[in-house]
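Hey all, quick one. A colleague (J.T.) asked me to put the GLG job into the tracker so the inputs and the structure tokens live in one place instead of scattered across chat threads. No bug as far as I know, just bookkeeping. Sequence used:
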Amino acid sequence: MTGILPNKPRIEDDRTGIDIDTLKRAFLDNLFYIQAKFPKVSTKNDYYMALAYTVRDRLLNRWLHTNQTYLERAPRIVAYLSAEFLMGPHLGNNLIDLGLYEPVKQAIAELGLDLNELLEQEEEPGLGNGGLGRLAACYIDSLATLEIPSVAYGIRYEYGIFDQEIKDGWQVEVTDRWLRYGNPWEVVRPESELMVKFGGHTETFIDEYGVYRVQWVPYKVVKGVPYDTPILGFKTNTANTLRLWKAEAPESFDFAVFNQGDYFGAVHQKSESENITKVLYPNDETYQGKQLRLEQQYFFVSCSLQDMIRLAKMQGVALERFHEHFAIQLNDTHPTIAIAELMRLLLDEHGFDWDRAWDITTKTFAYTNHTLLPEALERWSVAMLGGLLPRHLELIYEINSRFLDEVRIKFFEDPDRIARMSIIDESGERYVRMAHLACVGSYAINGVAELHSRLLKQTVLHDFYEMYPEKFVNVTNGVTPRRFIALSNPRLTSLITSKIGDGWLKNLGELRKLESLVDDAGFRNDFYQVKQAVKQDLADYVRANHGVEINPESIYDIQAKRIHEYKRQHLNALYIITLYNRLKANPSLDIAPRTFLFGGKAAPGYYMAKLIVKLINSIADVTNSDPDVGDRIKVVFLTDYNVKFAQRVYPAANLSEQISTAGKEASGTGNMKFSMNGALTIGTLDGANVEIREAVGAENFFLFGMTAEEVLAKKAEGYNPWDYYHGNDELKGVLDRIASGFFSHGDTELFKPLLDSLLYQDIFMVLADYQSYVECQERVDGAFRDRDNWTRMSILNAARMGHFSSDRSIRDYLSQIWKAPAVKIDVPEYSQSNG
Ligand code: GLG
């Protein structure tokens, strides 16, 4: 085999050695030669960087061998296209994947430093909003772990999700300057830049063979520069690539403008190009019809497809076989313009005819839907899309007209379908419906939990299900146990491993072996002690960062996720006030002490979500200082919830709040991370809660609330929230307490918009589910007092979560959709230089 990398044993050196002395030497070397610092003047960040480079050196070998193998063997590749990758910090995860956590910890300690402090130093790449972006990160971890050739494509936002501060109880957004101190995990590849066109018009011409062709004459061209991050598999040689695109101006000056003396105009054009990848849109579950967002989507999609075509060429794969070479997964509709872009590339740039191009395209793409919420379904005004991407609009019209012909043939007796199914919404101003384009142009369409996939077929995509039933599949979400157990919860990890070995980290189903230990009082006690120790850690953190003393003996009742009305953080808040009112009425009331912890960001433009944050903080002000309450209730809003913080939070929970209105949360993934770490769930039959409850056993899950069917039925019969207000004295007392200004220093206006929305609309049926929730919380209270039985239930939760590993999800994608075989990567062993 010829290759750039010598395929023979090489000498172990300071860039590859993993014994303690070599690690120490390498660390100091990097501090010296890369950070250009000596210990006396080094900051914690210098130490972090030196360690990051030391770890990076040790993974490069696998990465380069992986890339070389893919280039030579041209295997089928899964390309995961996503506008968001919420990676979280890399250092700890890479240490786990390389199996170097313990040796590095020791080496660092011998140098008089603390690994945890260096891990804390890493500024995480927050290039996503929430579940959708974090799912992408878990999936690429599993793809590498399962040794599947894959590449992930996205956007290198200069500013990721904003940092959250809380001022006077309100959320304040601060820009996330995550690149400020440099990013040791990425490698820029300026030589692989690509050009992306925008705007302008199209022209037709007859080519040399007499064939009618279209040429796009753009208004401007933007350069895409790839930044690559290696994505290691867990204890394998595979290291795949996350390739994120940064936008730049093609030249540093527009000389035509410059020569006319308009220097500022020229520089302005440059900064406009760079704006495309400046900032992540901070909305979760709502789309904003902003032109810049469409520019971001098209920019990264065009770069990625051109890159794949280039790669196929390098590998000697003919373009006719593009679909055999690549399976492209569209993570939600954000990258869906790729369907039109691949058509454009095949037709206009590579001379294919329509039928051949369409055949390839529709055998290439698969589409994952992540939500049923109408406000999240992307649609672009025809005028805007046509202005920005004139050629794509023509192609979309052509795709649509051919598609609607098929609809007419299949459903000739039902003309209403045409308007309903059309890719173009013509009911008012015309819009392009991206989910429709995705359905028409993909060979597979999946929801992210069983219930969600079923509801998709019954509601939003019903017509498409009738048209193409064979395209529809379910792939229930999963999360990586490497980050969310091994890295987040080292205590639990060593306890489990001491009992059942470490195979579970690659095969999470093995956790079932813990079931047989549930009757072992010693194991139960160990398990309990682990949870207590982790709770103590969180208490220390909360004391240090929020100045609030929380009691590790109390129930840690945690709701951590984006703030959204459908997720119903306010239902949780109503329960806190219920307890508060009870304690005020009866100060000697015996309740299990509880710590209510909230974490999550609100979209900056989402007023009601921000008001919910304010309400929670206002309740905390009252309960945390009322002597009648004592330490029976504590409420803390944990500021700036992100992946790094999540890793502290999941392991410490006793109770996981998964209380969305049934039918609204597509899957949820936090629900899985909590339960894997031994939290019990209080939840509705929504999203993956349904499957989690089946897996852990109904007796180990606190269920409440209406089902999705009941929610729909109630809506249909005419839901009136006032009935609940008048019919439930305790609920009335809670709402009246808020309305009285009790939590707002007498201000009766502050929370009025929230109360009005609950009493006059209550779209998410908070009041309808209130009583059921309160009663369920009383069952939680009772259950927690039986400490041993709670621990038993907690163990059974952790033991039965094997199904929710992202490895299982990826296997499902592979068998149902991608059909890409694993490829083993050989990495020649290093030999000891002194041996
Ligand atoms: C969505 C959904 C979540 C889902 C996640 C990943 O709201 O329910 O778990 O994607 O599929 N926008 C999201 O976060």
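Adding what we noticed when we looked at it: The chain has a mean pLDDT of 96. The radius of gyration is 28 Å.
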